[in-house]
Amino acid sequence: MSTENLNKEESWKKLRDLVDDIKVAMMVTGLEKRPINAIPMRTKKIDDNGHIWFISSATSEHNKNLQINEQVHLLYSDPDDNEFVTLYGQAEITKDRTILEDLYSATTDNWFDGADDPNLTAIKVKPVEAYYWDSKTNKYVTLLKMGVGALTGNKQDIGEKGKLNL
């Protein structure tokens, strides 16, 4: 696996592409205490400024944690396509009606009573630092390449990893 540290423009594109592909992150909050709080969260969108948006409940444990400490760690994982992102950032909770209406969808009705639900909040994550692993192929091709490498002794190009310079 080759290491490729991307420039700022390439980093934002790579981050957007990977997050758009993977969609669900483990959001880790309460980083200063043990055990940490980790919960799966569906990414609603990445805006033009590179902020990653989620919908959340005002009474959730992660919202409570973010009110104490805005640091958040997002872990995106797609083992089927061998794509992974770890992202550290600063989170902000908002109840801005325009934002909530923009992020709200019919699937959100499973947790809330419409976009006017008083418990509805949005979490904006501003990425500070990120790292990625991307095999560029699915797991079967990667496994095949690893097997060829083991049999021949020749290193195979099984993907790339690198720091995203945000």
Number-wise, the strands total: 9
Instruction: Summarize the main sheet.
Output: 9 strands, mixed
Mean pLDDT: 84
The coarse silhouette is globular
Give the percentage of residues in beta strands. 35-45%
String of helices and strands:
EHEEEEHEEHEHE
* Unreliable parts: 138-152
Structural class: alpha+beta
User: How many distinct helices?
Assistant: 4
Explained architecture:
By secondary structure, the chain is α+β, with helices and mostly antiparallel strands. The protein has 4 helices and 9 strands, in the order E-H-E-E-E-E-H-E-E-H-E-H-E. It has helices spanning 8-22, 61-68, 97-103, 139-152; strands at residues 2-3, 24-29, 37-42, 45-46, 52-57, 71-78, 83-94, 120-134, 160-164. Strands 1, 2, 3, 4, 5, 6, 7, 8 and 9 form a 9-stranded mixed beta sheet that branches. A hairpin with a 7-residue loop joins strand 2 (24-29) and strand 3. The model is unreliable at 138-152 (pLDDT under 50).
Task: Output the keywords.
single chain; 166 residues; globular; alpha+beta; 4 helices; 9 strands
